Amino acid sequence: METSCHGINTDFASSSSSNRGWSSILSAATMRHAISVKITRLLFVLLCSIAPVHAADIQNISEESLRADAKKTFKEKVGPFVEQYCKRCHGGGRAKANVNLEVDLKEPGRGVAFQHWKKAVANVKVHDMPPEDAAKQPSDEERLQFIEWIGFLKYLSPKNPGSFVMRRLTPVEYGNTLRDLYGVDPSIARQLPEEVVGEGYLNSISSMQSEIFLELANKVVEQIVAPEGKPPTAVQKRLFGEAPTEGSDPGEVVRQVAGSLARDAYRRPPTEAELDVLVDVFNLAREDGLNYNASLAMMLKAVLVSPQFLFITPSTEVPLDESIVRLDDHQLASRLSYLLWAAPPDSELSSLADKGELHKPETLRDQTERLLLHPRARALFDGFGAQWLRVNDLERQVFDPDLFPHMTTAMREAMMNEVRLFFESIVRENQRIIRFVDSDYTFLNEPLAELYGLQSSYIKGPNMLRVKLENPNRGGILGMSATLAATSFPNRTSPVRRGVWVLEQILGERVPPPPPDVPELDEQEQQSIEGLTLRQRTELHASDPVCANCHRVLDPIGFGLENFDAIGRWREKNNTGAIIDSEGNLPTGETFSTPAQLKRLLAKREADLARNLTERLMAYALGRQLEGYDEVVIDQLMSRIAEEGYRVRTMITEVIASYLFTHRQVEE
Amino acid sequence: MVDRRKFLKGVGVSLALPFMDSLASASTPAKPPVRLAFMYMPHGVIMDQFWPKSQEEFLNSPPPIIQSLKPIMDQCLMMKGISGVPITPFNGAPHALELSTWLTGRLPDADSRDRINISISADQIMANYVGAQTLLPSLELATMPQTWKENQEGLHEGYYNYCSFRSPTRPVPAETDPRNVLNRLFGKQGREGTVSQTNPLDRKMLDRVLGGARDLRRTLARGDQQKLDEYLDSVRSVERRIAAIETRQQEAAFEKNGVSPAKRHATDSAPIEVKIPEGDKRSEYMKVMCDLTILAFQTDTTRVSTYIGSRPNGASYPELGFSNQHHSQTHYGTDQDKISKVAAINKFNVDQYAYMVKKMHALKEGNGTLLDNCIMMWGSGLEDGHNHRRENLPFIIAGKGGGSINTGRFLPDVKGNQGDLLTTLLTCVGIPLDRPIGIATKQITEMKA
Fold it and tell me: Could you tell me if the ipTM is greater than 0.95?
């Protein structure tokens, strides 16, 4: 199909690590019907994953009994399946593609085996396995069962919070940290190299860029330490204190300065060895002829290029006899603070950590509330929210200037502010998660209101105002320019991308990647098909059976949003003049013809939306993908979040108070 | 001899002279080192406008896309029949893989596709061997920051970004700001145009910081130790750079007293002048990156460089009179308009490459030209963008590689793969390989002199 879904950036396998499949979007009725008729290969993929075990179902079942059940399933059901269909190549002495499922059956939940099972499911789903020339093929029914059994895999993973993922501060965090500690303008971090941010950060620097932290440290020191002969700056006084009096031994004072610099910068009390290093640097500088202040400045520079400052690290101590430990309070303070504020712990968090109180569940929840209600919590939108909604590239996204002259820097900023203020208001007011989708207010300034066709005497000027909406098609992330534009091409909408966006970003489904080497839908409005709507052209294209199976699921969702153009304006006709046919349907078969109706349909899926958002936030908070035991923890969180009525702040607090966030595995 | 320092002052640049050579030792200049550069364009080419039909056509009437190389075809080598890395089981990820397999010659690890896990790349293998002899082990450049976010086949989005990998899990990001390159390689230019001094005391300070990190390292899991090591390695390279500057200062003192660095020939061309363009024209931007590569080679600041002239899926070329993104035009089918646009984009990229190699051919070094001592390869990781074929990867080699490569030829039917090609290139540079690169099974002996 079109490049929108293939070569180009649909971002199919989104960052969510969820392995839940398509089942939840397909009703049992559809399923029976589909299976009763001849199932085409791709449609089968869409149908055959199992329903996730619902949080409520497991509420009263202990982890132990689930584990026992899962073990039994593997022994009695998966075993024979492997014996019958897989063993010839993946058993006995043979391990084609390095996969020996017979070995994996012995400890099905362990690392490598876990990966093999996931792979097996993927292959069995799409009929890649057993291979076509195999002696025996499982029935469709058996395939479904196999996939369902493997779904129990999560219960086999031992209780484990995973290791603490050490990472370097992101440019934003780095800038904020310098601001909070030294009053430096955070824009200083702008020259840090571009990086690819995923779950966890891939912070790589080339040898040419390696000096950047030294350069930045030099700049910081230049800004806060006055040159010789000039009076010290305020920050300098705070950091360095009074110089020891003439003739006295400065050793003690220097060590104290080192101690307080390192406490702030390393976000925990420094070790004696760390202090030795810093004092050593001071002494080097003195020997080199620098005066007292300049030598302290050199010491500060050493702090700023130390990995203890630049990295969020686990503890300085290795517990000897435990494999799983609680995060110590200082680590917890950093993890919490960087998650919600993208900044180092403030004095309140730091002092709670010093007192060893932060980990207490009540305290941790209170602090989470406090941080979330502070304006700095916008960092959660900038870091997480924008990524979740895929609007983080809006600033740089390309739009055809002839078709969309409105996409000025100021307009893009207003669009971004709309999403951000909306996100923040939902968090601040602890609204239901579904309000992200179904809401009756938004934030607009005059130009944006004009773009939306809203005339109002009171929305004037460039400032964003909270606006109550009468039009049910607006309100919520489905009716905002920023999100609608994020899925568009430079010159037109992409129903396919919008469909994928709704499924993945809102409902947390995983859309399988398209087959390779398929022709694209013409990017240009072409003479030969002028007058055809995008729908007709897309349908033409999706009549190719290779494409059709997926696109009959994806496209109808996007078609339902076709009344919004590529930058989110309302329209009745497309740019070739054809009337827009906005009938759409969800994979469940439910139909809709306005965004308002789609909103209402999605509102019925609050549990799915909540789970999707919870999983995404958890992965973001841990800086890694979710797997194995994580899924069990998420199941438990979901039941508590449901009890509390799917409130957003409850969800965030549950993630933070969770076993996964507060614990770590010591060795792999 | 031309006073390089003085010359470069005009552009705010102080010169990076080779520093590892013993300074006042030999009086005969050494043979210039062989240098290797790679320049990339994604999405393949319009094949019938790229490949010559014969040796005669190659030399005298080259096809449109490579037209601009005509004056120096005798310095070039084209070989048809080098295949790319087959991408099964990642059939849905042609663009995520075209760049990342280009210098690695192999596929990512299928079991950990959500992380970067591929293989050390050819340029970094070379950097491991010769990098210690120059200021920078290797140079990595790109035209624009990568903003493409896509996980084809569940592959980490970083596979769109990188062609250089220091190790299977550590990609090397490319620098996109020519000012940074100029400042870091050829002297630091302060805001007011003053050249700030690097403080030798920093070197001792960094040494202490490195020592202190050892305790931290012990408390980390193995994966985290690697992340820390990467940072510590980078600190070490800063240390080395500072040491280099100290050496250079000594060298300057020697020169002042009439002892000149042994390595250069009196006839060598002066280092070229590099001007950072004001506007945002892609051609000017690319030319300055090419100039920086030339200057880095000329001054022996590094011996291996990669330049991602354009990355998969994002770039557009408004200078060519249309605003379409490159990729959007590459599924052209029989659409003549798209075919002509893709051909124009192909030609545009080759033109910038031609600018670079022609300039190198005009610069003297040793008994020949700078180009004589270099291997400059331009190419793409796909044969064509429409069908994503990779049987005949388009690429051009310019330069004799210090006499190791037989140029001025078009070889219409060479059998080999990308791994074979990379392996051969490294042996031409003189790198002793302990194993072939990626999927290589042999060397392409036909290309050698």
Answer: no
Query: Which residues of A are less than 8 Å from B92 in CB distance?
Result: 6, 513-516
Residue type, A573: K
Residues of chain A in contact with residue B208, where contact means CB-CB under 8 angstroms, are 277, 280-281, 284, 302
Q: Quick one: A174 and A306 in the same domain?
A: yes
The pTM score is 0.73
Q: Are residues A133 and A269 in the same domain?
A: no
**Spans in chain A with pLDDT lower than 70:** 1-61, 97, 111, 126-128, 193-210, 315-316, 318-319, 510-550, 667-668
Chain B closest-CA separation from residue A370 CA (Å): 32
CA distance B30 to chain A (A): 27
Minimum Cα–Cα distance from B337: chain A residue: A524
Same domain, A141 and A172: no
Closest CA to A303 of A259, A254, A256, A262: A262
Is residue B10 domain-resident?
Answer: no
Q: How far is CA A164 from the centre of its chain?
A: 17
* Chains A, B: CB pairs < 8 Å: 216
Gap between the Cα atoms of A497 and A644, Å rounded: 33
Instruction: Tell whether B228 lies on the interface with A, counting CB pairs under 8 A.
Output: yes
| Residue B241 CB-density burial (10 A; 0-12 exposed, 13-18 middle, 19+ buried) | buried
Contact status of B174 with chain A (Cβ, < 8 Å): yes
Tell me the residues of chain A between 610 and 649 that have a Cβ less than 8 Å away from chain B: 625
Are β-strands B170-171 and B165-167 bridged in parallel, bridged antiparallel, or unpaired?
A: antiparallel
d(CA B8, CA B270): 9
Domain of residue A258, residue span: 167-312
Residue A46 inside a domain? The answer is: no
pLDDT, one tens digit per residue, over A184-225 is 999 888 777 655 444 334 445 565 666 778 888 999 999 999
Residue B318 belongs to a domain: yes
Contact call for A209 and B137, based on CB within 8 A: no
Euclidean distance between CA atoms A377 and A426, whole angstroms: 12
Alpha-carbon distance of A236 to A220, in angstroms, equals 11
Say whether A517 and B94 touch across the interface (CB within 8 A).
yes
> Which residue among B201, B232, B331 places its CB closest to the CB of A288?
B201
pLDDT score at B21: 37
CA distance A313 to A274: 15
Is cis: bond before B89, omega within 30 of 0?
yes
- A316 to chain B, any CB pair closer than 8 A? The answer is yes
